[in-house]
Fold this protein.
Amino acid sequence: MPDRTPAEQAAEDLRELVREAHGLLKDLRAERRAIVDLLDGIPAKVDDRIQEHLKAGLEELGKATKQAMTVSIEKVSREFDRLEAIFLGTDRESRRAGKPSVEDLIRRARTEREDDRG
């Protein structure tokens, strides 16, 4: 190639630099797209994590609620059994004291009312 003038050499160097700049710009645009895609996926990932934690929390709450209900049902059942024993006069205190059952007291009161009427 014939010798170039400094202006021609500078122009060639500038063209090479422009080609490199275009290549870098293309790379930067590709990186920008990748970052945008990544950022667009973050809300979905956050939503997924929230759902996972919410589901786990609800499962734990469900187990705790079920356990509390079981304990409450057992307590109410024991109280009904205790009241039944008192009503029937089969509880320890009534048997020891020789007290009549509530049922017997009601029957007596009914009989007395019928006697008073009749």
